[in-house]
Amino acid sequence: MEIGIVGLPNVGKSTLFNALTEAGVSADNYPFCTIDPNVGVVEVPDKRLDDLYELFSPPEKIPATIKFVDIAGLVKGANRGEGLGNKFLSNIREVDAIAHVVRCFEDKNVTHVDSELDPIRDIEVINTELIMADLETIQKRKEKTEPMLKSGEEKYKEEFEILKKLENNLDQGIPVRNMNLDEDERKLVEELFLLTDKKVIYIANISESDINKDKVECVEKIKQYAAKENTEVVSISADIESDIAELPDEEAKLFLDELGLEESGLNRVIKSSYSLLNLITFFTAVKKEIRAWTVVKGTEAPKAAGKIHTDMERGFIKAEVISYKDLMKAGSISEARNNGLLRIEGKDYVIQDGDFCYFKFNV
Question: What is the mean pLDDT of residues 306-315?
Answer without folding.
Answer: 95
